[in-house]
Structure formats: C-alpha cells, structure tokens
TrEMBL record:
<dbReference type="InterPro" id="IPR001647">
    <property type="entry name" value="HTH_TetR"/>
</dbReference>
<dbReference type="InterPro" id="IPR009057">
    <property type="entry name" value="Homeodomain-like_sf"/>
</dbReference>
<feature type="domain" description="HTH tetR-type">
    <location>
        <begin position="29"/>
        <end position="89"/>
    </location>
</feature>
<dbReference type="Pfam" id="PF08362">
    <property type="entry name" value="TetR_C_3"/>
</dbReference>
<keyword id="KW-0238">DNA-binding</keyword>
<feature type="region of interest" description="Disordered">
    <location>
        <begin position="1"/>
        <end position="21"/>
    </location>
</feature>
<dbReference type="Pfam" id="PF00440">
    <property type="entry name" value="TetR_N"/>
</dbReference>
<dbReference type="InterPro" id="IPR013573">
    <property type="entry name" value="Tscrpt_reg_YcdC_C"/>
</dbReference>
<dbReference type="InterPro" id="IPR036271">
    <property type="entry name" value="Tet_transcr_reg_TetR-rel_C_sf"/>
</dbReference>
<dbReference type="InterPro" id="IPR050109">
    <property type="entry name" value="HTH-type_TetR-like_transc_reg"/>
</dbReference>
<feature type="compositionally biased region" description="Low complexity">
    <location>
        <begin position="10"/>
        <end position="21"/>
    </location>
</feature>
<feature type="DNA-binding region" description="H-T-H motif">
    <location>
        <begin position="52"/>
        <end position="71"/>
    </location>
</feature>
<dbReference type="GO" id="GO:0045892">
    <property type="term" value="P:negative regulation of DNA-templated transcription"/>
</dbReference>
<dbReference type="GO" id="GO:0003677">
    <property type="term" value="F:DNA binding"/>
</dbReference>
<protein>
    <submittedName>
        <fullName>TetR family transcriptional regulator</fullName>
    </submittedName>
</protein>
C-alpha cells in the first residue's frame, strides 16, 4: 500500500467531520433565527412582562429546555432581539455618514431605507418603540452606547454640508428626530392608519406615497432659498 493510499481514509474522515460540523452550524443558525423571529413578534404583542419563554419555545417548535440552551433566560433573549433591531436600524443611519455624497441623494436613500425597515420589520420597530416609550428600563444603556456616536457623526455631516453651502442651515438633530418619527410611524401606528384607510394592512403603494411626501418635506427643509432679484431702480 502506498503512502497516498494510507492517507486517503484520514482525509475522508476529516472531510466528513468538517461537513457534519458545517451542517450542525447551519442548523443551529436556522434554529436561532426561528427563535428570534417568534420572540420579536411575541414580545411586541405581549410586552416583556406578558411574554414567557415557554410560549416562545412552543411557537418556535421547541421545548423550553431546548430554547434555554440557546438563550439562558428571557432577559438575554429580549436584549438579543433588541440588539438585532437596533443594529439593523443603525445600518441605515450609516447612509448619512458620508459628507462626500450629495445631500439630496443621501437623504432620499435614508428615507427610503427607514420606510423599508418599517415595512419589512414591523414587529421589531414596535418592540423598540415599546421599550423606549416605557423609559428604556432594560435597554437604555445599549441605546446610548450604540446610537449616540453614530448620531454625532451624522450631525457632523450636516454641519459640513451647511458650511459648504450645500444645504440651508438646519437643526440636524431635530430634523433626524422628525424623520425617525415620520418613517417609524408606518410600523408603530400602522393599525391606526389601517383603521382610517379601512383596510387590513398598508400596501406598497401606501409606502411609496409616504416616501414621496416625506422626502419632499425633508428636502424642502434643507433647500437653499434663492436670492430675490434686485429691484428695478
């Protein structure tokens, strides 16, 4: 038997082990994603106090003990859900942190991204809103740690645009607060909107209309006013 032949079984065994490990990792990631998908919905519907680990486990098709293998307690699961929500939201805030781009296009993209988040992740948006409305008792420090540095970067971008004469002087902090309120309401208050519109859920057309209106309002707030023509002598 040659040396290469002696080595074949070892390589085959290693490959099989690696393949099994990869499958386990994929299965673990999928199971974790299923848990988080059920958790964000149930926390948003029932609140932290009204949610039980057993209910989330049942909805995810697991035993309570199996769920606790992935998340040791309800608080850890709650914070992980909010981590995912805030991280995805902050990813959209990064759209602003580039003073080299034209402000009008950046803000168009930002409004579109925030509304897409409300359309695609309504439960996450509602849960985050509930935590904040309640005074952020369990997640306030994380919000300060993650949100404030990026907000300061975005404000610096607005200040640079203003100094370069690209946009009108504007209170960037309150403009961003206003954009957040307008875009997130399409998730957090969608029930009220549907009642007023007499439909079961908001449509893509509703979001498109909202995007146009909000974008027009935001761009109007930063537009440079044209100088009045000199009066005739």
């Amino acid at each position: 038997m040659t040396l290469s032949e002696l080595n074949k079984p070892a390589r085959s065994g290693a490959a099989t082990g690696a393949s099994a490990s990869t499958r386990r990792m994929i299965n673990r990631d999928k199971l974790e994603a299923d848990i988080l998908a059920q958790a964000v919905r149930i926390f948003a519907e029932c609140g932290y106090e009204g949610t039980s680990i057993a209910t989330i486990a049942e909805q995810a098709g697991l035993s309570k003990q199996n769920l606790l293998y992935y998340f040791p307690n309800k608080q850890a699961l709650y914070k992980r859900v909010l981590d995912d929500v805030l991280d995805e939201w902050l990813e959209r805030m990064n759209l602003l942190a580039d003073a080299g781009k034209e402000p009008q296009q950046v803000l168009r993209s930002y409004v579109e991204a925030k509304l897409r988040f409300s359309r695609e992740h309504p439960w996450g948006s509602r849960l985050y809103a509930m935590e904040v409305i309640g005074g952020a008792p369990m997640y306030g420090q994380e919000i300060k740690k993650k949100l404030i540095p990026l907000l300061r970067k975005d404000i610096a971008v607005f200040e640079q645009w203003i100094s370069e004469g690209k946009i009108a002087p504007v209170n960037a902090t309150h403009l961003l607060f206003t954009i957040w309120a307008m875009t997130q309401s399409y998730a957090d208050f969608s029930t009220q909107m549907c009642l007023v519109l007499n439909r079961k859920q908001l449509t893509r057309s509703d979001f498109a209309d909202a995007e146009k209106l909000i974008t027009d309002m935001v761009l109007a707030s930063i537009s440079l006013k044209e100088s009045a023509p000199p009066s005739a002598a």
